[in-house]
Amino acid sequence: MTPEVEWKKVSGELLILSLVEARPRHGYEISKLIEQRSNGAVRFYVASLYPLLYRLEKRGWIQGRWVEKSGQRRRRYYRLTIVGQKVLASQRRGWQAFVEAVNRITEAEHA
Amino acid sequence: MLDWREEIARRLSSLKLDRTRENEIIEELSQHLDDRYCELISGGAADDDARRDVLMELNFEDLVAQERSRLVRETSREPGAPEKSGHGFFASLGQDMRYALRQLQRNPGFAVVAIITLGLGIGASTAIFSVIDNVLLEPFPYKDAGHIIYPRVHGATQGPDEGRQGFSSDELLDFLRQNHSLDGVIGTTDDPVLYKHGAGVEWLYGADMTPGSFEFFGMPALYGRVFQRADYQLGAPPVFVLRYKAWKARFNGDANVLNKVFVLNGTARTLIGIMPPRFGWYDADVWIPKTPHPGMSIGFAGLPERWFILGRLKPRVSLAQASADLNGIVNPLAKLRPQDYPAQFQMFAVPFGHSGGEHLESTMYTALGAVGLLLLIACVNVANLMLARATSREKEFALRAVLGAGQARLARLLLVESLVLAIGGAALGVLIAWGGLKFIVATMPPDSIPAESVIGLNALVLAFTLVLAVLTPLIFGLAPALQAARRDLNDPLRDMGRGVIGGFRTARLRDAAVVVEVAVSLTLLVGAGLLMHSFLAMREVNLGLQADHIFKTTLLLPPDRYKTAEQVSAFVRPVLARVNAIPGVTDAAESSSVPPNNSRDTKIEISGKPPEKQWRAQVQNVSETYFQALRIPFETGRGFTETEINDARKVAVVNRKFVSTYLSGEDPIGRRVRLLELESVADLLPSFEIVGVVDDVSNQGAPGYGRGGLQAPIEPQVWIPYTVTGSGERSLVVRSVQTPMSVMEEVQQAVWATDPGVALMYPDALDQMISRRWYAGPRFALLMMMIFGGVGLILVTVGVYSVLAYTTAQRTHEIGVRMALGAERANVARLVIVEGVRLVLAGVGVGLVVSLLLGRAVEAELWPGVKPYDPVTLASTVVLLLATGVLACWIPASRAARVDPMVALRYE
């Protein structure tokens, strides 16, 4: 497995949970947002995005629902569940703690 | 717009998804691809390029997808799915097994280490259990063997296993007629058999049996028949029954010997039956019917006849009741013949089933405990290996969970993998046990197990192995399975907190397991070291003679023709002359026994000394060449002259112990010693003039029942000319320049040339006999401990390795951070090794304490002078364990040192 795949798999959960926190989004939208907000540094293709979505859905952190809007094909929108909110909060704290720890270490190293 | 559905469906087809679910996925993915295609086109891409790019992004060929497609096949057939539930447990079990096999094939190193570890544990347990089953649980193939007892006269001053077990005909008859507690009483007595064969006679080990003996044992003959009542009637044609082993060895298993007549001890007897292989009562070659008659009769070698008695407890009669019953019977007899009973005594009914390996019993159960511990350690090791492996399989488990595998299902898959490993371990274990048993049987001290027991794998033993194979995965597979099942619930913690928070309690448990296994291994190794020390000390003991190049044999003289001293010496003298003439023979001597066996023991009196009740000495009858043949050095005085022997003078040689015990500070030469108890069986005036003193020669007898053996003190001993008495055993001791057994044939010819009616008994090389009877027991114990210690050491290696491999894998990112921040590779390796050594040291500490505590218990088993806290043994064991520990750390340490910080940090 390439490092990039590994990286995405681990942090991907945090990204997806964050993106569906404000409002429900469909898969393509999620992938576009990740690409745009990272200035193209991070990209999720269809083959890696959807397994991740299905996994989060199976855990009950997000919920997918088919939504039909007039004049459009139906699309599957994913929204954050109550459990997902807690997980997201916890993952954010963990991530921040880690980043701070690394910062403290690296600052000390360069001091 | 293109239709992607077909392409997606094709790529998903191998996953065999549920139809509805598959359609949903196809719909969702095809929309995504549409959007992506439009995006690319609007960005200016050509149709073909856009299409190729989109399809490339649908690339399920990367690793995640590969794993997914393989796993989905399993998970999609989950038993939880309602429409599949009818498919049966075993079908899916078979599927799980095949999957487990594929998994193990993918990681053969892991599988091999795990199977060898389990194989060692299961194999050792199976081997020891089969010895226990064959020797202690079911040694005798006899009817209702659990209720068979034998009587023993136990004196108040005797040890728990001591006492008289041979009884006179009068005692036997009284037991038979007067007991109320036994169903059937039988007696057996030694009857060495001379069997006419070729130019002379050969010796068979015979046993006389009282009426009803075969019915008592409940075993029919393999061919022919056993004794019937009629065979015991006065004037009945003489018959005998042959043992299977003797039939094979002497008659090549020829069925035509049945109903043939053989001359045994001068009587023509018909062979009426051949017993099945496992019938080996009294370890005899032939069984002869004999009815006990009242009064004293003389048995083998002029000694009083003694019967070994067996009885079967009546239903609901306890051992205590039977003992009381027997007490009541012998009390009048004890008044009639007080010399046969200690001053204070009690009769005991001793369970016969236990006579199998009573001195082996505690050893074997200790060994079973030890191998049980080893098996447990093996299980813990494999559990740790599986945990370490599970870390690297997290992705696989997570993906399975995504695609619908429940936690129970994952746990079950891991348990099935454990089961497959255990079955492999059990198969290897049976092989190890099979080889181990051959080894155990070959090294076991002779006579330590009953002739009837056959040590080998049997149905019960294999069932035991099967139970182990099913139970052990529950021990070693459950922890990883539960962890796998739990992992998914803890997912949020896992991703961020790996190695920081994760499984503090299980880490403690793993460390504790290593500490315990190091401690157990150390204890076993210290035991092995102490036994080795004892064994070496024993080999250092000076026997007082040169045992190499000595051939020895006991002579079986027909009692009717050899009653007086003259008759015996008229035979022995020409035999010695003929043996001396054999090329290569340097010395030939006659002796009543061969050291380190003990000789007959008698009360003594010494001239000029007030008689003392407790003065006793061993008495050995020898020819003048005896001391020279065995190279026994004289301290003072001289040996016997030829004239003294020929004239049967009353002269004696004593050992140094005799002088230091009874004549300390006095000149022994010229003193006279009276041998009081020779009077009852011998035809002599028992006062002998001491003419010489020799160095002490080992005379403690063979070890067993807590007595004898080379660590026991040497007893005072007196040698007298063999020509002064007609009774007692006769042996030949022959020193030759060639290997001892090579003269056997010529010695036999020399004996037969003098009297064709005399046979050789127990022909042997003296050093071989000593090795088997004196050294084999301690050597066996030492070998067992060394094997256990060795297996323990292997398991410790695997144990330390597996725990460190696991924690190192867990800490990959931490190591990465350290290295990114400038830690040297050597430092990282040291970090791992220090962790391992810390665990080993803790185990060594615990093990030392346990060894010292246990040491007090085993002190009695050790050679006098070898201390349980022997510093050399302890220090070398500790060094060995530490070296092993460092070795086991090496692979995980060097793996940690190779961690690429960039890769490791990307984990987070």
Overall radius of gyration of chain B? 39 Å
Q: Strand sequence of the main sheet of chain A, in spatial order?
A: 1-3-2
**What is the tally of helical segments of chain A?**
4
Name of the top-level CATH class of chain A: Mainly Alpha
Poorly predicted runs of chain B are 62-86, 488-503
Extended strand count of chain A: 3
Q: Average pLDDT value of chain A?
A: 80
What can you tell me about this protein's structure?
The complex is a heterodimer of chains A (111) and B (908). Chain A is of the alpha+beta class. Chain A has a single domain, classed as Orthogonal Bundle (Arc Repressor Mutant, subunit A), CATH 1.10.10. Chain A contains 4 helices and 3 strands, in the order H-E-H-H-E-E-H. A 3-stranded antiparallel β-sheet of chain A has the order 1-3-2. Chain A starts with a helix and ends with a helix. With 908 residues, chain B is an alpha+beta fold. Helices cover 51% and strands 15% of the residues of chain B. In chain B, the strands form 4 sheets. In chain B, strands 1, 2, 3, 6, 7, 8, 9, 10, 11, 12 and 13 form an 11-stranded mixed β-sheet that branches. In chain B, strand 4 (193-197) and strand 5 form a beta hairpin. The longest helix of chain B is centred in the C-terminal third of the chain and has 45 residues, at 766-810. The radius of gyration of chain B is 39 Å and the shape is elongated.
Key attributes of the depicted protein:
heterodimer; A: 111 residues; Arc Repressor Mutant, subunit A; 3-stranded antiparallel sheet; 3 strands; 64% helix; 13% strand; disordered N terminus; B: 908 residues; 11-stranded mixed sheet; elongated
Summarize the structure.
The complex is a heterodimer of chains A (111) and B (908). By secondary structure, chain A is an alpha+beta fold.
